[in-house]
């Protein structure tokens, strides 16, 4: 199986690689600069050796005599200007007071034949010594080649290379260790985050907050993780509460439905038919209970999918209210009056229409027959006013809870979910819900909607005349 390094190892390797590249570049430049500097110094020494002038200052001499001078003068010559050999125009040469010589090149012969001095070059003597050589013209078909031993320079450069190599290796090793330490310290919050995620996956326990320190990217990730787990825990609690409430609310109609059905079955089994009137009443009760169950399951389904499933878009709330009023007006014999000003929000038009329809259904249910329900939309405040018995002030906070029903309204049909759905839709749109008493004693249920754009002049502008439906 192919080994794949972890994130810490990758970060350490990346830092070590960057350091290695930097060390390599610096080492190469240092090695090259040292070698060039030392060679330039030797070249300067060779180039600034005016041999012919020195010999002329000693008087006239025969160049050929250089090949026969004694070792004493040769040693002095080597200390002053370097090793010397005479080059003739015919290509022959002789070493001055030494055994070592360097091969004669065509450039050297050209200098002996009257050409210009050569440029400094590397060469190797007959004894295998690495030298730096230059050839100067003399007179009468002669030239002289001077060279200096490069052994000391080569040793110095070689030692420098080994030193740079060893120090560079130690530097890379140190960078690797430092990278591991830094990566371990820097990624410790990620380790904590990983441990928390694995704990959540293993135990499904979402109460595992991570300590957030600083404001960097890792801190933001930890904060986002804490928010996510809190949101998931809240959703799970709401889900469990919904299931518990639904089980409780479904128990009563199901028990009543089962009792009536058992009564019908027992009458058939015992061949004791019910009176026609009693049978009709029993069937009507069964039909009403089935309708109540259908309504309850529908509202539970809406409540379970309250989060917007579509992208929120600009919504004209006044148009949404008009559509909801048209739908509600077909369900009963109540007059619904409207006074709507244009208002735009960002949201889900279907969810908003469902919330408005629930407000209207709630108002119609508690209003006397043939009474009026008023709907107003002014500066983002949507109000639905009924002429019913009203809601006591002590119950204002409870009417938006799931499955809560006022004691005075438990005889009426309903599940206690209508206003809970309104509250959930309002929350997803950044709105606020409220309840007040009307002048006639009824209830005014309101939703305060935020504008689509507070800087735009379109929101909340213009009036629509009041009319009745």
UniProtKB/TrEMBL annotation:
Q: Which of UniProt's keywords are assigned here?
A: Ion channel, Ion transport, Kinase, Membrane, Phosphoprotein, Transferase, Transmembrane, Transmembrane helix, Transport, Two-component regulatory system
* The UniProt record lists the keyword Transmembrane helix: yes
Histidine kinase domain: residues covered: 245-453
Q: What highest taxon heads this organism's lineage? A: Bacteria
Q: Read off the lineage from the record.
A: Bacteria, Bacillati, Actinomycetota, Actinomycetes, Micromonosporales
Keyword check for rRNA-binding: no
GO cellular component labels: plasma membrane
Q: Which Pfam families match?
A: HAMP, HATPase_c, HisKA
What GO terms are given for molecular function?
A: phosphorelay sensor kinase activity
What name does this protein carry? histidine kinase
Cite the PROSITE patterns for this sequence: HAMP, HIS_KIN
Q: Where in the cell is it found?
A: Cell membrane
What is one GO biological process annotated to this record?
monoatomic ion transmembrane transport
Q: Where are the transmembrane segments?
A: 12-33, 160-183
Record field: catalytic activity: ATP + protein L-histidine = ADP + protein N-phospho-L-histidine
- State the species of origin: Actinoplanes friuliensis DSM 7358
The catalytic activity of this protein is classed by the Enzyme Commission as 2.7.13.3
């Amino acid at each position: 199986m192919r080994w794949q390094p972890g994130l810490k190892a990758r970060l350490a390797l990346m830092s070590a690689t960057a350091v290695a590249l930097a060390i390599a570049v610096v080492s190469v430049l240092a090695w090259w600069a040292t070698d060039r500097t030392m060679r330039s110094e030797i070249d300067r020494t060779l180039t600034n050796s005016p041999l012919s002038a020195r010999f002329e200052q000693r008087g006239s001499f025969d160049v050929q005599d250089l090949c026969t001078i004694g070792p004493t003068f040769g040693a002095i010559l080597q200390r002053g200007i370097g090793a010397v050999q005479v080059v003739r125009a015919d290509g022959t040469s002789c070493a001055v007071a030494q055994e070592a010589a360097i091969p004669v090149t065509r450039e050297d012969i050209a200098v002996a034949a009257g050409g210009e001095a050569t440029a400094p070059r590397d060469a190797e003597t007959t004894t295998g010594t690495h030298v730096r050589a230059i050839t100067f013209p003399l007179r009468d078909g002669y030239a002289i080649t001077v060279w200096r031993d490069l052994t000391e320079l080569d040793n110095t450069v070689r030692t420098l290379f080994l030193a740079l190599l060893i120090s560079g290796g130690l530097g890379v090793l140190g960078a690797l260790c430092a990278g591991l330490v830094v990566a371990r310290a820097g990624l410790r919050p990620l380790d904590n985050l990983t441990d928390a995620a694995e704990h959540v996956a293993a135990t499904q326990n979402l109460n595992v907050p991570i300590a957030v320190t600083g404001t960097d990217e890792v801190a933001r990730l930890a904060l986002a993780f804490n928010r996510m787990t809190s949101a998931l825990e809240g959703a799970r609690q709401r889900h469990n509460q919904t299931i518990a409430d639904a089980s409780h609310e479904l128990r009563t109609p199901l028990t009543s439905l089962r009792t009536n059905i058992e009564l019908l079955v027992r009458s058939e089994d015992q061949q004791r038919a019910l009176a026609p009137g009693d049978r009709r009443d029993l069937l009507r009760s069964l039909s009403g209970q089935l309708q109540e169950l259908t309504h309850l399951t529908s509202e539970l389904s809406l409540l379970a999918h309250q989060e917007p499933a579509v992208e929120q878009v600009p919504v004209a709330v006044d148009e949404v209210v008009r559509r909801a009023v048209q739908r509600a007006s077909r369900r009963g014999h109540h007059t619904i009056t409207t006074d709507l000003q244009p208002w735009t929000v960002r949201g889900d038009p279907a969810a908003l229409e469902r919330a408005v329809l629930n407000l209207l259904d709630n108002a119609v249910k508690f209003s006397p027959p043939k009474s009026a329900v008023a709907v107003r939309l002014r500066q983002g405040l949507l109000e639905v006013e009924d002429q019913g018995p009203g809601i006591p002030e002590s119950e204002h906070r409870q009417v938006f809870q799931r499955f809560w029903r006022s004691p005075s309204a438990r005889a009426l049909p309903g599940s206690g979910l209508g206003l809970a759905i309104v509250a959930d839709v309002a929350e997803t749109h950044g709105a606020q819900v409220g309840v007040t008493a009307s002048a006639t004693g009824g209830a005014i249920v309101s939703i305060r909607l935020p504008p689509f754009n507070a800087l735009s002049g379109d929101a909340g502008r213009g009036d629509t005349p009041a009319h009745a439906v």
